[in-house]
Write a structure and sequence with these properties.
Elements lengths: L2 H4 L3 H9 L5 H22 L4 H9 L18 H12 L3 H20 L4 H13 L3 E4 L17 E3 L2 E12 L6 E7 L9 E7 L3 E7 L11 E11 L8 H42 L8 H28 L3 H4 L2 H29 L1 H4 L8 H7 L8 H14 L9
Parallel strand pairs: 1-4
Antiparallel strand pairs: 2-3, 3-7, 4-5, 6-7
Length: 405
């Protein structure tokens, strides 16, 4: 079954959703309120945002993308990225965890139809609000997720895998896990498969901690991942197809939306600072007011960039040929680079707007957490790696001949 056959029509999805009560954004706002109230403590203690995800589960946000036929809302990429943005304005760690979870859900939804185990997982995400973690970073490979060292070992109807997972974000808190590996022990590093696992299918032994500058609540510790499970946990489709059609688009769109939310939160604080300063000085703008204009402009560019890429993906998300095209792959890959750089630029302008009031950690205009969190964006799958890998494809891609090509 192809992707187009696997999804519901917009009208059917919306009709089903409207019967459920609050809108997705209303649910997201409720979750964001809980996330914001706990964000400083989550950051300070480097702990998982339990309160935010308690509310997210109550609001059924973890299964929004699951098709209605399996108990979800059948939410679109527009819906999911709006939620990521809303959560990003409240707590960066909550937003990034949600973004990573939805990327894994998208893989199961878009490539799991007709496979009994994958359909069972969809139902569990929708009904029980399972949280899915991701294991893509491995050993010395770092963020090079298109080459795997660990291999799946096949034995009849079961498979096993031992993986040096140097980062599994919120792995200890997840109800399931999606990971990549070489197809078999004699396969090339790039000949990969994707596995979707329930908690009973694997064990984790912690090998590294997570004491970082920002994104502390993602709890992205290292583990030895040991898998022993039925063979139906392995997706039949090759990972290179899943990577191009789903993993990369959803990851880059959801991550970017979370980063934009962080940037928007910083701009909001900068705006509040400017307004207060102007009121107390008889309407005179503070010296760094120009940085607020720059922050607003940078945020506008960031939001427009993300929106354009969301629209581009939604137009072709069921067209395998278009998804695999050089132009689309180049654009969606470079979105991560552009969005992360713009997000950092926006937060820096916002902090310079507020000056010492933004730099302090103990005032109403503090932006230290926002800056520390957003600084993770260029190094989360390092931008330098992406640009080096994209050099050939961007050289081969054509230059548009008009504004509307």
């Amino acid at each position: 079954m192809n992707v187009r056959e696997a999804v519901l029509t917009v009208d059917e999805t919306q009709a089903s959703f409207l019967e459920q009560g609050p809108s997705l954004i209303e649910r997201a706002v409720r979750t964001a309120a809980a996330a914001a109230a706990d964000a400083d403590a989550v950051d300070r203690d480097a702990r998982f945002p339990h309160k935010a995800f308690e509310v997210a589960r109550e609001q059924k946000l973890l299964g929004v993308m699951i098709p209605v036929e399996f108990g979800g809302f059948g939410a679109s990429i527009h819906d999911v990225t709006d939620i990521c943005y809303t959560l990003g304005r409240a707590c960066a760690s909550t937003a990034m965890i949600y973004a990573m979870h939805q990327t894994k859900v998208a893989c199961v939804v878009r490539h799991g139809h007709g496979i009994p185990w994958m359909e069972t997982m969809m139902r569990r995400v929708a009904r029980d609000q399972w949280l899915l973690a991701s294991s893509t970073t491995e050993g010395q490979n770092g963020g090079n997720i298109r080459a795997s060292a660990a291999a799946v070992d096949h034995a009849g109807d079961t498979v096993s895998l031992m993986r040096d997972a140097t980062v599994i974000s919120y792995g200890a808190e997840a109800d399931g896990l999606v990971t990549i590996a070489r197809r078999a022990t004699d396969a090339a590093a790039s000949d990969q498969v994707l596995l979707a696992l329930a908690k009973d299918d694997y064990s984790l032994k912690q090998t590294q901690g997570w004491e970082t500058l920002g994104m502390r609540g993602t709890c992205s510790t290292g583990f030895e991942l040991k898998v022993d499970c039925p063979a139906d946990r392995v997706f039949p489709e090759a990972y290179d197809k899943i990577h191009a059609q789903t993993m990369t688009p959803f990851a880059h769109l959801c991550w970017s939306s979370a980063w934009a939310g962080i940037a928007a939160a910083a701009v909001t604080r900068a705006q509040a600072f400017i307004r207060k300063a102007a009121r107390t000085s008889g309407g005179q703008m503070p010296p760094a007011a120009a940085h607020f204009t720059a922050a607003k402009m940078s945020l506008a560019k960031l939001r427009a960039l993300i929106s354009a890429n969301i629209d581009a993906f939604s137009r072709v998300e069921h067209d395998e040929r278009a998804l695999g095209s050089l132009d689309f792959q180049s654009s969606i890959t470079l979105l991560k680079v552009q969005a992360s750089e713009l997000a950092v630029e926006t937060v820096m302008h916002a902090m310079r707007t507020a000056g010492l009031s933004g730099y302090r950690n103990d005032g109403e205009f503090t932006m230290g957490r926002h800056l520390r969190d957003v600084l993770s964006s260029p190094i989360m799958i390092n931008n330098d790696r992406i640009l080096a890998n994209a050099a050939t494809s961007t050289l081969m891609s054509g230059v548009p001949s008009s504004l509307h090509d």
